[in-house]
Design brief:
Elements: E1 2-6, E2 11-16, E3 22-31, E4 34-44, E5 62-67, H1 76-91, E6 102-104, H2 110-113, H3 116-119, E7 126-129, H4 134-138, H5 140-157, H6 162-174, E8 186-187, E9 194-195, E10 198-202, E11 211-215, E12 218-222, H7 244-257, E13 263-266, H8 275-296, H9 303-311, H10 317-335, E14 339-341, H11 344-348, E15 358-360
Parallel strand pairs: 5-6, 6-7, 7-8, 12-13
Antiparallel strand pairs: 1-2, 2-3, 3-4, 4-5, 9-10, 10-11, 11-12, 14-15
Helix pairs in contact: 5-6, 7-8, 8-10, 9-10
Amino acid sequence: MESHIVSKAQAVNIFRTSAGAEIFQIPVEVFPDFWGFVYLVLVQQAADGLGDGRDASPGDGEYRVLIDTGSGFGNCNQHLENGLQAVSEHTGRSLQLSDLTHVFITHGHIDHFGGLSYVRSRTPARIGVHELDLRNLTNYEERLILVSRRLDAFLIEAGVSPQRRHTLTDMYKLTKSLYRSVKVDFTYEALGMRLGPFQMLHVPGHSAGHVVIRLHDVLFSGDHVLDRTSPHQSPEHLTLSTGLRHYLHSLELLRPWAAGVRLTLGGHKDAMRDLPKRLDQIRALHQDRLAQVTQLLEAPHTVSDVSHKLFGEVHGYNVLLALEEAGAHVEYLYQLGKLGINNLAELENNPNPTPILYYRL
């Protein structure tokens, strides 16, 4: 069942699970001209009291959960507040940040957790994330420095020119400069991947600690599965437990676990009502892209060459996304033993990062 709120504050979509839980889909502009969703979920605690007490079950019997927070960038926090105001007007009750019981983070990418700096000081809600993305939230400054160094080395090895490399690394850090480390109250595996009526599945790939969250017959997929777009991939060389190999494996883990799911709600794009079909489409897209890369590497090329041939001329932050996507596919083929390095002697004689030429074996 789906309906809409159109108020002076903001337009919000409403969904309901088979057991009557209410889901409010709040649109937020996470970066200029790039929109995503956060979800306010209202569900009564089951009579059997699922959980073992470690989940801080709400005393009044109602879970009021915010799934993801947006980026905290630009107008994003205001869009979150507008959405909560619209829900309050619709329900006739206060449903503000201070009324939340929990905040669930699907994964450690800034457009999904960056708003925690704003949210944390305005709510007593308990905040949770998966263990493998914990440091993204709690040791953010440290991680930003380390990943920036790895990114610079990746761009050198990808064959990116020095001037463009510096532009891309500066751009990468700029969009992440507002966030500050935030305390987290619990991690999902420590709770047995379940909190009250919510179940979690670890699906690494798009990020190391990505989870999907199931409530009755509805799945919150974060960025693991999206409608009309293939979730972005980056090489595991940048962050362990990411990369295309992990991602494709996680797609198959999700199939049996999500059996019976009627509705899938992503962090971007439209709701999905046929999850198995969407999983097939995403897998087919990557298989096609892998075939293209294999064909391109009949002659030696850098990742930058491959990126340009796959995606053409792109601009702004999309340049970095295209390079990472191409790098993830090249890395996967190399892991499978299908690629070799054409300029191995040059790498052996140079202790510093050097552009790498890959070719099909």
